[in-house]
Amino acid sequence: MGKYTSQVKQRESARITGVNPIMKGLGCFIMIIVPVVSYGAAMLLVNYGIGQRWPIPIEWLGTPQFYPWLWKSGGLAYLLGFLQTQTNLYANSVFALGIAVVIVGFMAIFFGYLYRFLGPSEYGPLDVPPIRAKVKRYKR
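RESULT FIELD:
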């Protein structure tokens, strides 16, 4: 037995050391849903904006054109062929990125408030809350 060891067994704490599996599943679900919803909303918004004559740059509209040397490989050729069928791909991508940023921002605020109200206590069992003392203003 060493100098700094003890025969008393350390009691294991019942602390949760990982992320709840439900939260992992929710995060995975959100990573799939947010881009799909934002791209769908961007398609609707771009089409509405074209009809209402919004100042969308003309370079963003139309179908994308790719270089012919990119068509040589099999899987990449299929992907680029699919992308060439998409109208207003650049405008949809830019709008989708903006919509995704807004959605994720609102979700961060929502989950922050949710954690504040439903999360664990601010103080642990060994913490002492701050002193509530009335301090008088110093006057000479």
